[in-house]
Amino acid sequence: MLKHTQTYEIMVPETVGVKQTSLVMGKHSGRHAFVHKLEELGYHLAGNQLEDAFVRFKTLADRKKHVYDEDIEALVDEEIATAQDHIKLVSLSVIAGTRGPQRATMKLDIDGKPAIEEREGNGPVDAVFNCIKAMVPHDAVLELYQVHAVTEGTDAQAEVSVRLSEHGRSVTAKGADPDTLVASARAYLAALNKLVARRLRGQPEERRLHSTDVG
Question: Is residue 187's pLDDT more than 90?
Answer without folding.
Answer: yes
